[in-house]
Amino acid sequence: MRKQRISSCRRYLKYIVLTLLFYPLSVLGAQGQVSVKGQSITIKQAIQLIEKNSSYTFFYNAADLKNTKTRNINCSGTINEVLNEVFKGSGVSYTIKGNEVILKVEGESTQQAAKHKIIGVVTESATGDPIPGASVMIKGTKTGTTTDVDGKFEVMATSSDVLVISFIGYSSKEIKVGNQKVLSVTLSDDAEQLDEVVVTAFGTGQKKETVTGSIQSVRPADLKVPTANLSTAFAGRLSGVISYQRSGEPGNNGADFFIRGVATMNSATPLIVLDGVEISKADLNALDPEVIESFSVLKDATASAMYGTRGANGVLIIKTKSGSDLEKPIIGVRVEAYVNTPIKRPKTVDGVTFMRMYNEAVTNQGTGDALYSDDKIYGTANNLNPYIYPNVDWYDEVFKNATFNQKANFNVRGGTSKITYFMNVNVNHETGMLKDRSSNFFSYKNNIDYMKYAFQNNVDFHMSKTSTLSLHLNVQLNNMHGPLTTSEGAGVDNIFGAIMGTNPVDFPVMYPQEDEKWYRWGSIVAGNYNPVNPVAVSSMGYKDTFESTVVANLDFDQKLDFITKGLSFKALISFKNWSYNSKYRLQGYNTYQLTDYTKNEDGTYNYTVNSIGDATNHTLDSFFGTDGDRRFYIQGYFNYDRAFGDHHVGGMLLYNQDEYNSNVNSSLLNSLPKRRMGIAVRAAYDYANRYLFEFNAGYNGSENFAKGHRFGFFPSVSVGWNFSQEKFWEPIRNIVSNFKIRGSYGLVGNDQVPYTRFLYMGITTLNDSPSYQTGYGSHKESHNGPTFSRFENEDMTWEVGHKLNVGADIQLFNSLNLTVDAFREIRSNILTTKGSIPNYLGAAKTVIYGNFAKVKNWGVDLAVDYGKQINRDLSIQFKGTFTFARNRVMETDEAADIRPALSAVGKPLNTLWGYVADGLYIDEADIANNPTSTLGNITIAAGDVKYVDQPDVNGNYDGQIDSDDRVAIGHPTIPEIIYGFGPSITWKKWDFSVFFQGQANVSLMMSGFEPFGTQSKNNVLEWIAEDYWSKENQNPNAKYPRLTKYNNNNNMQSSTYWLRNAAFLKLKNAEVGYNFKWGRVYMSGTNLLTFSPFKLWDPEMGGGKGMAYPTQRTFNLGVQITFK
């Protein structure tokens, strides 16, 4: 017996290894040898043995085989040889189609004798594509077949039979045969059927009608938009998710997103789980939508409590596709080419406008500094000479207006009854907006060139009817090439800074070359004005980075029905490795200044150009770096799911453990592994899908806290009532097809400690001189000795979110689905620094961390989905989401003497602080009649910003403007409202869709764009020139105050003068496609239109001066081909 088991194990092991290597070939041939051996067995038992040990499926009427005799059977050979022996003398004949065996018994009844052949084809209603593998069964029997690769079928039926045609993801159809001999059947995409099972915590499935938590699912097809990063597709498509994109730079253009807003001063990033394993936001952005089978957002405590310490910020659950038992593999190819252009590019003034504005600024201050001469202005205006009278649009010299990019995807799906597989390969090539300056001298490319490769391979071994072993492999490779502008690794941001800091008239891009040894880049040295040449900066070096991420998951799923029905066990082992390598090459460049010139008789010029610095400064510096980490994760759980009549019970008991190690041990702290462990439990009960109850809990441990505080218990409870299952609902069920209310309350944790590891430990610095100071003003004293730079606090513990959720799921007329939730969270024990100890006690150099803050977060989110098949050719669907999330700080440790208006308590997180502006001063009288400003470094004059004096705690006004007059202004910088909506229409083989997305209750603060600041003659943005205060334009509401040569601190303060409404509505996506039998061709676009009160740059980028890599508008052309 033991020998037989060893042999069996070896056989399984050999089979697994061989199929791993050759599984794509396994679908090309049918089953080989078949054997049947048994004493006194019936034909039906013999059939069952064949089905068990081969890939063949039998279709027959069970009643026809009920009275067949038993006999001894012992035969092996081909399927035909074995079936001939099994059916010998029984009157049973058979037909083999692929792996299907259809039986027919002689001497059929009169009804059976009246059967006739029905042929037909099953297609998708939306695309007209055939549906292979659809089930075609005679209702009430086991007789039937499946459609072939072309969607065609043949079946024998009587005129009174009813055919049931079904396929997963589509609404089933029943067709009365009658006298029909040829059928054309269309199946409609059924959102209800797709959503019937909802993926919940740890990837387990739960019937949607029994879910009591707040879970939002999205179809993977809705995430297939022309974008390089998956996270940029979230905005407006997922209710409860706040999402926005700040940059369009390739490799750095992912979106920030939060589930139901922000409820902590620390990390609010949700937990992201792919196939049961935690991944980073970067890993998510690299994920190809083609590999996603299901995508769920867990929002309330019931949905996320099992994750305990990691569930406070919500959870994204992503499951990748698996293979299918198909006669032939299905191969998919998708190729896209797309063009990116900036949504809105920053514009600077031309040279003539700049010089006139600069002269005006000098005149306004009366400094007597040199002005640009009329000759200089005339020569520039008339383009007399580009070296003597330069007029450079630095942005246009550095950047181009469009980039051309490509994306390709290949996947294959198939398998047999023993092994199924899914494989996907994705390649994405994205380039940047920099103009290529490579030449014989600069042999390298300075533009951004981003190559992203992704590989997903999922193999499932069906070892038996109760045992499945799965191997999931995810590989991501990213290769980034881009400009290098400093030895510290700065890139594109420095180029935008150089453009803003360099005016258009003082020097050209470069002067004529004397030889080919080096370029003579233009520049100038003049007092405090030391600009950099933006084109030279963009070409001075490059950086290459390569990173790879490999995640390998091994799953084992075992049904334990032999112990008790409904019991199963699942184990997961996962290994993840991330590595990063960088290479920086930086080359110095030479700059030159025009000092004199002469004009020849023939109209040509001779220039005297002097080198600035060392003319041979061509040093080449190289820098190399490496980084990496690895994670090992194990998880195992028992799951129980069983119905006893109308009573349904479920439960789970889970254990997990996670270990993180750095591959680069640069310090002792970095070399120590990080570990987590936890236990999770779930218990659920429902009666007739009507009365619902669920309990979830997580018990987790984390190294981030001291002993005694490392473990936390996070329970939740939820209930639901499905009214539409009640008898009294029957009269209105045709109107309100589904109505369920639900509620939950629970605790969730957050152990994402900021700053550094082991924060609860103290740090003492010895012999710091001076160590600390006591007293203040003239009484300040310095002391030497040890300094407590970080105070020990072993009482630090978890952040705890107390989450309450009330929601309803409603369906009207079997076509309009509405899900609405109201939520509230109190996040306590938030880790912050202590601010109430005054510095005069010697605490200026001491940081004390502790659980000092509490935040309240509340709101509502809803999702709408409507779908209707108008007729055979026309169908329409509409989807919409709305999310409102608002927070307020309830407690935090602040200075004892802080003014209430400056206290964070009662204010939102991400609050903007500043002065309340009252327009611009009109004249000297206006200045004299208002509070005195202490903010300026130059004398206040007409055209400067006027501020409102704020009262103190007693309601008194001090008559001056200082830092105590700052208050919370505007909305937070993270939007409180995100929404999206749009229809999709299919007509015959055409499909059309548009999607609008918007944000509201959000502000941005403009800053950092002051012209000429610190005598630097900085560049001037075009919008300033259009409307600034001047003697000719004494408008107290002008867009910009008066011009000054020096920085005007009074005018540049954060205030309502620079506060802007960052709300917008975008035509986020639009797509039109045409479907062929072999695939689909489509055109699409992203960020096509923007409607906003803010016009200067894309408001989604947030505050600043708009001089950053702009978000992109995309025009995409794609083709999708399917080989079946």
Automatic annotation (TrEMBL):
Its main location: membrane. One of its GO terms (cellular component) is cell outer membrane. Belongs to the TonB-dependent receptor family. One of its GO terms (molecular function) is siderophore uptake transmembrane transporter activity. Signal peptide: none annotated. Keywords: Cell outer membrane, Membrane, Receptor, Signal, Transmembrane, Transmembrane beta strand, Transport. GO terms for biological process: siderophore transmembrane transport. It is a multi-pass membrane protein. The keyword Transport applies. It is found in: Cell outer membrane. NCBIfam families: OMP_RagA_SusC (TIGR04056), SusC_RagA_signa (TIGR04057). This is TonB-dependent receptor. InterPro entries: CarboxyPept-like_regulatory, Plug_dom, Plug_dom_sf, Secretin/TonB_short_N, TonB-dep_OMP_SusC/RagA, TonB-dep_OMP_SusC/RagA_CS, TonB-dep_rcpt-like.
